[in-house]
Amino acid sequence: MPGMSLELYREICTEMKNFKGSARECNFYLCEKFPDVPNLSLGSIYSLEYQRRMKQNHARISSAAAKYYDRFQEAVNRGDEPGIILRIAQEVDISPALLARMILEQHYERLAPELAISVSKALISRKMKDTTLIEDRDVAYEVYLSTLHDDQYGPLADVGKHSLGQEFELKLQRIAKDLKLAFRGEEHLRLKGFDKTPDLKLDIPIAVDGFIVNWIESKALFGDEEGHRGYLKDQYLSYWNRFGTGLVIYWLGYLETLDQMNEKKIIIMSDFPSNITKMNPHCIKPPQL
Question: InterPro entries this protein is in (predicted)?
Answer without folding.
Answer: CDIN1
